[in-house]
Specification:
70 residues; mainly alpha; 71% helix; globular
Length: 70
């Protein structure tokens, strides 16, 4: 089974970079909008991110984007 971190690494770089920046700024509104874009590429990852966002788990979201991939 592929981890969410690995699946996040498959997102288009501009979207992943925007998500990374929004998470660093703890910008829940921007993250919510960006997660809609994630849904176009991976609905399961988008649902997972929405769940984390609802719990304000910015640290967990940040770890997804900082984890080594590959």
């Amino acid at each position: 089974m592929t981890s969410y971190a690995e699946r996040v690494s498959d997102l288009p770089p501009p979207l992943a970079n925007a998500l990374r920046e929004a998470v660093r700024g703890e910008d829940a509104g921007e993250l919510a909008e960006l997660v809609d874009g994630v849904a176009e590429h991976d609905a399961d990852v988008a649902a997972y991110l929405r769940d984390l966002l609802e719990r304000y788990a910015f640290d967990v979201i940040a770890e997804l984007f900082e984890a080594p991939h590959g």
